[in-house]
Structure formats: structure tokens, C-alpha cells
Batch of 4 targets.
Target 1
Amino acid sequence: MIGKKAPSFTCQAAMQDHITDNVCLENYDDKYKVIFFYPQDFTFVCPTELHAFQEKLPEFEKRNAQVVGCSVDSSSTHEQWLKTPKNQGGIEGITYPLLADVNKNMCRDYGVLDEESGLAFRGVFILDKNNVIQSMTINNMSLGRNVDELLRVIDALQFVEQHGQVCPANWNSGDKAMDPNEQGVKEYFKDA
């Protein structure tokens, strides 16, 4: 899927205090997109991740990146979870859209559906402004993600787009990059 257009989608979404119909990928044109899948509402690891995304939402917004969550739950189930306080395992305070993939088509299209359980693995897809998938990772259901790493990947993507250089292992914003050729590698390792 890397380097290809992301599968399009249209579905309902729960948003803080209301349900919205016909949310689609094109709603977020001219933005970078972080689409993350999680197994199910009212579970255990999931609320920790959703709150972690919310805590870093200003950082995603600084990078012109839209965060969108998705599970196989209905929008009304999302809405109930959004009304449940954090200290009771809920996600009250989450402000980004939660897509309702009740027919599981989006999970299938993105390759994250566990057919046996009917739930989504913890997949996350970073799309550029043209909806091309630039990064994807998929964790098993018991393994939570590192949201800071997703911000680092967006920084790297934007750096590459702006400067034409490539980002080596463990690169962070402000670190040395390299030209994508043999001389670039030599220059990078020159002081190592």
C-alpha cells in the first residue's frame, strides 16, 4: 500500500457532541492525514491511545495533519464512549472524528481487519496531502502505539518534501539529513 493512493471511504463519524453522516477522505484534502484503527470501544488499551492522540492533537495541527480514529463500532457506541469520563475508562474530551466502520469495509480495505474476531488490529496510516500512503504500521491488539513516533514520521515526510533530502535512522527534526546518493551517505558518516 505504501506509495499508493489510500482507499477512499464514506461513513458516519461521532464528533464530540454529535454524529456526522458521509465523512469521507476527501473532507480532509490539502491536509496530511493520520488514520488510526483500534479494536473496539469500551476496551482497555484503546482509551489510552485515543487520549494520547488527543494530548498531542495541537502538535498534529501545527503540522497541518488531521487525526481520524476508526473502529468497527457504531457511531452511537462511539457517542456513548465519548460521554464516559476518562476515569471510568471513557474518552470524554476527545475532539477528533471517530469513524464508524460497522460493515468493516474500511478495515478490510486498509488490511487491518482480523476476520476471526471481527475487530481491527492497531493500524496507523500517514497520508500526504494527495492521499498517498507514506507510512503504515500495524500492531497486534495488545500492543499500544507511540504517538510521538507518528509526529516524528510526519516531520520526516515534510522535511523530505521541502528539502529533497532523505532522513536517516533515528532522525528527528533539526538533525542532519543526507542527499539520496552515495556521496550523501559518505557525507553523513564523515564525522561519525
Note: Residues 147-163 form the longest helix (17 residues).
Target 2
Amino acid sequence: MKISAVLITFNEEKQIAAALESVAWADEIIVVDSESTDATREICEKSGAKVLVQKWIGFSEQKQFAVDNAGHDWIFSLDADERVSHELRSEILAIKEAAVTVDGYKIPRLSIYMNRPIRHGGWYPDWQLRFFDRRKAKWKDLLIHESVEMAKGARTARLSGEIIHHSVENAAHHHRMIGERYAPLAARQMFNNGRRTSPLKIVFAGWFTFIQTYFIKAGFLDGIPGIVIAYFAAHHTFMKHIMLWEMQNAKTPAE
């Protein structure tokens, strides 16, 4: 088995070196860069990665482009803000030397938030299907929370080693990500799927999300980061319903 590690990037000069180092065990590394204006491409090239420049076409499409341009059928997909743990690396290298009996592997993802690993509030284990045979899988066409879809009849297994996720720099960054990326994309995905909201949902959906994240899913066990995560989860829910309301009441909803 030979493995292609694939990543997509845009202005990731602060993160990309560590991500690339964590997949140095792969037989090749493919980076698809969406016209970065910082030193991202130079860092990738110096690491030995093959860099392809592709104008941004969406998360799923960009990742599928990376998969399609890989040299090997077995793919390990990693984001620039993620790292392969030592335990996961060892598991994958063991799989390389063994007889493969499945078509894809789901991997637990552990997020680091406010310098603390988060294991509650619905954030863990956050199973990610990132190691797969591309002949039996593809990225689903979604605007947000893109994921790999296995072909009918394909077999999957779970690994225990983790992907370490460093997605948020600080509270201000988290707030911007919700307002500029996650809520608008989530609202558009909801609208495209035929979902609609109401004044009652706008008022109460955020509160329900906070209760679910902080109490039902035990976010309180993560201390201060837990309550911050619950607050931002509620804020995200509120924002996406407001944006969906604007779309469904616009005379000509913006594309």
C-alpha cells in the first residue's frame, strides 16, 4: 500500500509546516493551494510537497480535486490546522504493512481550545473518515461540514489514534469564523435543502443549543472553555437562523 497525504490551503503560513511534518511518513504529499498571498506555497515546496494551485471552488470540490490529483489510491486527508498524533501515525504505518480488509478508516479528532483538549460538549470523538481508498469513496458535495462518503457496500473500521485539531486561535477568532464563514454557509446549506426558520426558532434555537452543549453533552466538565464553546455554539445557531430568515424573506435570495 502506498499513501498520498492531501491538504488544501489558503494563507496558512502559520500552521502548514506543523501539519506537513505530521504527515512526513506518507509516500507523497499533495497540497492544493487556492492562490495564497503569503508564504504558504513556499513552505510547502521546501518541505517536499507537490503544490498545485487551484482557484477556490468550495471545500468539498477543493478536497476532491486534491484526491483526484494524488498519485496513489489510498488517501489520507488532513486540514492545515490539524496534526497526526504519534499514536495515529503508528497505526497507519502498521496498516501499510498488513493485509487491508476494509476500504476506509474513521479517526477520532481531538480539538484543542484555549490550550485545553476538549472531550465533552459534543466535540469528541468527532469521528472523521480521512483515510480511505479513493476508488470506494468521494467527498460529498456540501457547503459546510464536508465529509467523505463511502460507496455502497464499502467497509470501514475505526482507529484509536487521534487527529489533533487546532482550529481556533482565540475567542475573537472564533467569533469571526462564525460570522464570516460557518453561519453564512450553514444558512445557505439549510436554504438549499429546503429548510425554513421562524421567529420562534430564532428566539429559542440558540438557548436549546446552549443547554444541549453545556448540560446534556456535559460541556461543563471542560471548565471555562466548555462554557465558551457552549456560548459560541448558541451564537452560531442564532446567527444561522437569522441569516436563513433573511434569505427566505428576500425577494431574490442571493446566491
Note: Residues 12 and 40 are 6 Å apart (CA to CA).
Target 3
Amino acid sequence: MIIDPTKLSVKENYKLLTGSILPRPIAIVSTISEDGVCNIAPFSFFTGISSNPPTICFSPARKAKGTLKKDTLMNIEETREFVINMTTVPLLAAMSACATDYPPEVDEFEVSGFTPIPSERVAPPRIKESPINFECKLLQVVPVGRKEAGGSFLVIGEVVMFHIADDIIENYRINVEKLQPLARLAGPYYCGLGDLISA
């Protein structure tokens, strides 16, 4: 089948992308507003892009109603700081509770039951229950696509501090079986590691 994306709706293009690009790691991004309100939200359009310096990116979409930015992005543009908290299988329910588009005054730490703990070099708190946290300083925000629903932004940040749970790391290698990473599929579906294959 050959499909012309210009002939499809935003939703249809989204379904093709999210059903094809998988599994996707899930970043739970914690931020804080200038008024001190914490926000956490999951994003599966997320990856690492450089190791010198360590640099990661994620992509918050525009709100469904159009040009409005999500609270996560507004907080990052205000403070230029954020934390990426990696999602694991045991964190599925709490992560899912953060995915709702709450008003800016709502603290998703309270909604989800996640525990905020202080970061070392940035103001936004880390998630205690997450075994890996990346403290980040904003490098750049790149608008992508149209200024309407379906458009998005690419947020690029430098990792200024790693936090790795002692029981999953040895000689700078992460034990993925102990980590139990959770990945996003399409629709309501997620997956764990499954069978490990080496080449």
C-alpha cells in the first residue's frame, strides 16, 4: 500500500506513525513553573541524540484545540530546566495518571502518587520511583509542523546530571532486565522487554 500523507487527516497520520515507530521509550518529564507549581507528563516521542555532551530530546505536541502549548513546554521555556524520568513496567499506572491534560494549577505529583525529590543542578524535582533521572538544561526549542493540532515542538536539552539506581548499574552499563523499561506501542498498548536478542 502506498499512502500520501497529504491526503490524510492529522489523526490518520498520527496512527500510522505511532503504529510503525515502536516500541518507543517513555520519558516522564518533570518541570516547575515560575510560580512554583510542579508538572509531570509522559512523552513517547523521545530519544537520545548525542553523547558529547550528553543530549536528549522529546517532542510535546500542540494542544488538541490548536495553537496552545502544553504546560510542560511553557514551564521549560520559562525556566530553561527539566528532568527526564525513565518509565518502567511497575510505573505504568502512575505514568498513565499523568497523561491527562490537567489545568496548569494542578500538581501531577499529587494526582499520580509519584514522590518528588530534589534535583542537584536544576529546580524541577525528580521522581523518586523512577530508577533513572536525567537533569537537563534547555539548549533549544524547535517548532515543527503547522501551528495547529498535530503540530509540535522539539525540545533539546543537555544532561547535566545522571541519577541511576545502584542496583541496575555496573561499570556504567545499565542492566536492562533489572530496569524493566516500559515502551509505548499504538493505542492503549504498552510492552516490556520480551525476549532479548543479540547479534
Note: Helices lie at 10-20, 71-79, 92-97, 108-112, 176-179.
Target 4
Amino acid sequence: MKTFFVSLVTALFFFTCPAFARVSSLVVEVNGMACPFCAFGVEKRMQHVPGVESVAVDIQAGKARATAGHDASIQYQDVPRAVKEAGFTAGDMWITAGGRVENNGGNGLILQMKDLFIPLTVDDNVLKQRLTAVVGTGHQVVLKGRIRSKEGAWILYPETMEPKKP
């Protein structure tokens, strides 16, 4: 009975500690920006995306970077709409996201973040092996990579994986 109780408490602690499971930053290409007024419009709209604490726009690079608040998670799905509302077209997006890597049935992997999961597509065999090695361990990781909407579903193409820093 004692073993069951310890296991139950450990599981409850593990699954109810979502503070790290989040999208902490995002970079989006913004097509068509040409002036400071354009940048201001993008910044203003992106600050309304849930989870965004700050936005920095680089007109020359044609990109906007959003950073989440302390325990917040950026709702990346809302970013293309915010860019469109500012009068521009969103291009590629890259995110930094933390969570647990889990199986999604068959050979598929997902990044589990609190109530949300993102399917992963991994082309690099070494990275895929590293991701597969943490499946089911409960270890939190940080993935950085390109995220795309494909047929209404968002897919993360991770480029790097780091362990969660304590």
C-alpha cells in the first residue's frame, strides 16, 4: 500500500507541474514590412496573442520575435491571424517549446505540453534517436524548430533538442 501511495503522489506531482510545458518564444517572417509604422502595427497586433509578453520587430530582416511571460505559453496558432490583421502575410515560424516527448501511436512522436500536443516530424536520424530515447521517461526537453500548419494541423519540425534546465 505504501508503494502505491508513493507512486500515486509521484505521478500527481509529475503530471500537475506544467510550469515548464510551454512555447516560450516564437519568430515569424512578416512579408511586406517596409517602415517603422508597419513594424508598429505588427507589434501591436502580436501583443494581443495570448501568452505574448513582448514583441521585437526587425524591419530589415522582415521578422518579428515574441517572448512569453514568466509562466505563459504563446498561442502560436494565433500568430498568422495577428500578422494578417496588421495588414501583412505571415511566412515561416520557428518556436522554442518545452514539454515531454511521447509516442503518438505507431512511429509518430509528439511534444506534450499541458493540455496541448504538437506532432513532430524529424528528418535527422540522430535527433530522432535522441527524441525516442526520452519517450516515456517523463524528462522535460526544449525543442527549437520550424512549425507549420498542414491541412489544418500544426506540425513541429525540430532542429535541436536540449534537456530542461533546472
Note: The two ends are 32 Å apart (CA to CA).
